[in-house]
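Field log, afternoon session.

UNIT: design team B
ACTIVITY: writing a sequence onto a fixed backbone
BACKBONE:
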């Protein structure tokens, strides 16, 4: 099927881009991926207990907020040799088929997955295939699985002295890695993987691994790579990261770049097509710790960017505590619990967006029947407005991407008829009046 993407950009007129859908490895029957969202769970920092059992208590709240897929940061035990801080990095595994005792037991994890499934969640786990910690069981049982320097020592991953890299030229190591992935699907019934640093691993490994692991059940694969830079990986993964967008939006806010640069970048992402999807986010475990919270990076446009992440073509990705909102950088190698107050001020905001994303066909990610229009306005240097359509369903999104209040009009014949504001529930007929008054950081989302 063909996907028609119409981009009406200020000064550009209407551009059309038609891409032919091709059969790729990510065409597995995981239909829920098009309507899902992903909530990243940092078990260590989620509660004082920092356990699976403690997190279980939060799942009904997250279900009510509209969360569909729970992504758990690595659940494997952490290497103690050359570890960072007092607790070490969760991305430095010592065993691919065991549970980090910091979080509980294997039975605790299985119980949590079962309870999550009963609540309607899908569960994916972080998979760290590029490297292990220094005392991983393979360093003793199979040292030939690793890359070695000329002096015979294990090869340290670039810029990260607590981890050592695996040798993907070794077919036995590849088989062992695939068997480890199968273990989690077979034994715990997870629904997929978030693949850490996916583009640091040869794409042909993922091409080999996915069909093998999916002999057990169809799965969802999201890879940590940007398809603009690594197009071949998009043929394997259901979704990928929008790193370029994330960095560009931060530069846009901090350095007062022209809004046209963001629109141009979105055109490039859209030109990739819908054989895979992009995950849009304003923060995650790396960004929060090393580069700051979304409010440090984006200031007044943090909320408009959150609205964008949930309404543009793709999948929204949230991080633990964004519903608070969490205003602090969480430590990575130490215990540093999210400061829950009992008053999650952003929960209703996210509930509205996530429920709209999962229920309105116009917002289905990667749907070849979907159409996205950029709308022009009288303030194109400050306002990003777009209309998403799928059959009779339409969603209008208007975002003030500037640091000041703006009065403006939308100038598009595409926009007509009665819509309802999903946040304040007011109705509006855009056939005659397309004027707006929007404060700094303002946003509006309407459905027809």
């Amino acid at each position: 099927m063909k996907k028609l993407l119409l981009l009406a950009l200020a000064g550009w007129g209407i551009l059309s881009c038609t891409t032919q859908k091709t059969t790729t490895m990510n065409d597995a029957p995981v239909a829920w991926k098009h309507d899902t969202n992903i909530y990243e769970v940092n078990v260590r920092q989620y509660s004082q207990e920092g356990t699976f059992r403690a997190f279980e208590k939060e799942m009904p709240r997250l279900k009510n907020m509209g969360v569909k897929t729970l992504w758990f940061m690595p659940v494997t035990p952490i290497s103690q040799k050359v570890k960072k801080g007092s607790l070490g990095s969760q991305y430095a595994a010592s065993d691919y088929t065991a549970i980090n005792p910091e979080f509980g037991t294997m039975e605790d994890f299985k119980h949590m997955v079962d309870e999550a499934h009963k609540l309607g969640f899908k569960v994916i786990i972080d998979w760290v295939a590029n490297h292990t910690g220094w005392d991983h069981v393979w360093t003793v049982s199979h040292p030939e699985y690793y890359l070695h320097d000329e002096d015979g020592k294990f090869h340290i991953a670039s810029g990260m002295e607590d981890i050592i890299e695996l040798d993907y030229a070794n077919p036995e190591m590849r088989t062992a890695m695939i068997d480890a992935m199968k273990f989690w699907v077979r034994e715990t019934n997870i629904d997929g993987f978030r693949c850490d640093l996916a583009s640091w691993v040869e794409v042909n490994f993922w091409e080999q691994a996915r069909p093998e692991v999916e002999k057990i059940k169809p799965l969802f694969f999201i890879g940590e790579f940007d398809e603009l830079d690594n197009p071949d990986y998009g043929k394997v993964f259901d979704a990928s990261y929008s790193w370029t967008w994330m960095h560009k939006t931060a530069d846009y806010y901090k350095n007062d770049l022209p809004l046209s640069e963001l629109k141009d970048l979105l055109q490039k992402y859209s030109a990739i097509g819908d054989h895979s999807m992009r995950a849009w986010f304003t923060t995650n475990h790396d960004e929060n710790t090393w580069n700051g919270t979304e409010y440090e990076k984006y200031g007044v446009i943090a909320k408009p960017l959150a609205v964008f992440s949930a309404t543009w073509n793709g999948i929204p990705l949230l991080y633990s505590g964004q519903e608070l909102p969490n205003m602090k950088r969480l430590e990575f190698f130490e215990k540093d619990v999210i400061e829950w107050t009992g008053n999650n001020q952003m929960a209703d905001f996210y509930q509205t967006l996530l429920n709209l994303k999962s229920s309105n066909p116009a917002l289905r990610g990667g749907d070849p029947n979907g159409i996205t229009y950029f709308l022009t306005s009288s303030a194109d240097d400050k306002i990003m407005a777009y209309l998403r359509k799928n059959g009779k369903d339409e969603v209008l999104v208007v975002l003030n991407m500037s640091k000041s209040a703006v009065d403006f009009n939308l100038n598009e014949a595409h926009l007509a008829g009665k819509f309802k504001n999903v946040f304040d529930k007011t109705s509006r007929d855009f056939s005659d009046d397309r004027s707006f008054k929007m404060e700094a950081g303002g946003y509006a989302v309407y459905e027809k």
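LOG NOTE: The chain is about 30% helix and 25% strand.
NEXT ACTIVITY: expression trials, pending approval
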